[in-house]
Structures are given as C-alpha cells and as structure tokens.
Amino acid sequence: MFTIGNLTATRIEESYEPNFDAARFFPDWRPEVVHEHRDWMVSDHYDPATGMLKLSVHSWLLKIGAKNILIDTCVGNDKPRAHRPMWHLMRTPYLERLAAAGVRPEQIDLVMCTHLHVDHIGWNTRLENGKWVPTFPNAKYVFSREDYEHYLALDRDPRTGPVNGGSFRDSVLPVVEAGLAQMVTGAGALDEYLSYDPAPGHTPGTIAINLAAKGARATFCGDILHHGVQVYHPEWNSFACADAANARISRRRILEQCAGSGALLLPAHFGAPFVCHIDAKGDRFAPRF
User: Fold this and answer.
1) What residues in the chain have per-residue pLDDT under 50?
2) Can you give the chain as a three-state secondary structure string?
3) What is the pLDDT of residue 84?
C-alpha cells in the first residue's frame, strides 16, 4: 500500500515472475545494461539465469473516501489466450487478494483501463454459467474511446478479428453491452482527485491517469513504461508499441512531468518495489525506488 496525500493505492497482484525474453521484448536491448544497472535490476526486474524480464501484472486499488477505484484489470481467469501460453486459461487468486485488501467485486465503484490490451482488461469480466459477465457489476468502466473504436473496427473485420487474442470480445464488449462503459476522449477530470491525459503510442488511445490529493501527486502510466530500464532509455519501445514515434513522445512527457512535479510513478508492470519517483539528470532520467 502506498499513500498519496490522504489517499491510498494498493497493489493487487495477479502474477509476478520472469515472463518475457528481454531481447525480444525490447528490440534495442543490450546485454551490458544488466551490468550497468545490476544493483537494482537483479533479481526483482531481471532474471540473469534465463535472460527474462521479471514483470509484474497487477491492478491498483484506490480508496478515495468511500469510493473504491480499480486501475487496470490484468489477464483474468479462464480466458483462452493461446497466443500467450503463460496467460492461457489462468487460475489465480486475484479476487481473493482483492478481498484481502478489504474490497469485494460489488464494492468497486469505478474501473479505469489505461488501454485495451489483453493484460489490462481481463478481470473486467468473469465466466459465469458459460457466459462472460462484468466482474464489477456496480462499477462504471472508463475506456478510451480512441482505443475502443480502433479495436472495434479491427475486431469486426474478418481479416483482423478477433483482436488482442480475443480479449476485446470477452473482456470489453460484455461491459459495453451491459451499459457499464463510460467512454472518454482527450484530457479530462473525473472528480476533484482523478484526471486523465491522452498518451498515444503504445496504443492509439492509451491514457495516463493522474491523482492529486493534499499537495501529493501520482501518475498511473499503464504501459507507457513497462520496465525501469526505460526510465534510463525512454527511446526504447517494446515490441507491443503500435506507434513508435508517439510512444517515445508520450514516455518522455510522463517522465518530464513526474520529475518536474514530484509525482509518484505507479506503472502496471514494474518489479519490486513496484513504484518510483523520477529524478532528472540533465536531459536524462533515473528512477528513485
């Protein structure tokens, strides 16, 4: 649990393990970066025995007064994900971990997805009597309209659908059909604490989610940054970044904003301790875990 002003953000883990080959994940990967950053990278962020990045998959649970807000919803249980065998038909105690943080699914008021990739939307729904139904029945789900319309068009095209390993159909459309989706576009505020900004690149409609409370700030960046090494190398895109140029622009903008404002950065996949502040080093940056 992390404190931002008078609010709290609790990490709800789905998985945390070596899961992606570093050289395949980052096309610009150089093995010498491990030696350069060994003091923080091994073993919480990188497994030298396998050459794998150690990436966490987790949600952030915000408590704002009586409201419970969930940011990104991981992969989900029972989801057919043949394109990612490690995520195929998963069974994890995610909901039990949410309960251990003091919240049942029906107590979630708002779900916010930074983007609509498979590992950020999975627990939007769960399998009930053979049907995908919203996991959080009393919540509004905030989706980027740009992402939704982009993937809807691709999913409807028989040449490209189903998209995102089928996750758009089992984890997004049931929410929309249930009338629980709230589409947002551009920059805006949801309440006095929460706002969002467009950060396209990783996907067309990726958003950064900002939290401000009693002078403290935090930014939930989703996959704008996947790994701590990108703080040192904001020019590094992952294999999954759709628009390379805009991904780099959005990543640098987030780092500049966090360095300038002192905002705590809460990514979706960093290894332990899972969050960091950003220090400016001239025109470069460094994480302060």
Assistant:
1) none
2) CEEECCEEEEEEEEEEEEEEEHHHHCCCCCCHHHHHCHHHHECCCEECCCCEEEEEEEEEEEEECCEEEEECCECCCCCCCCCCHHHCCCCCCHHHHHHHCCCCHHHCCEEECCCCCCCECHHHEEEECCEEEECCCCCEEEEEHHHHHHHHHHHHCCCCCCCHHHHHHHHHHHHHHCCCEEEECCCEECCCCEEEEECCCCCCCCEEEEEEECCEEEEEEECCCCCCHHHHCCCCCCCCCCCHHHHHHHHHHHHHHHHHHCCEEEECCCCCCCCEEEEEECCEEEEEC
3) 95
How many Å apart are CA 137 and CA 141, to the nearest integer?
Answer: 10
**Is the link from the previous residue into 250 a cis peptide, with omega within 30 of 0?**
no
Tokens of 27: 């096309």
From residue 280, how far is each of 247, 252, 257, 287 by CA, in Å?
A: 20, 11, 10, 9
Question: Which tens digits make up the pLDDT trace of 221-247?
Answer: 999 999 999 999 999 999 999 999 999
What is the amino acid identity at position 83? Answer: H
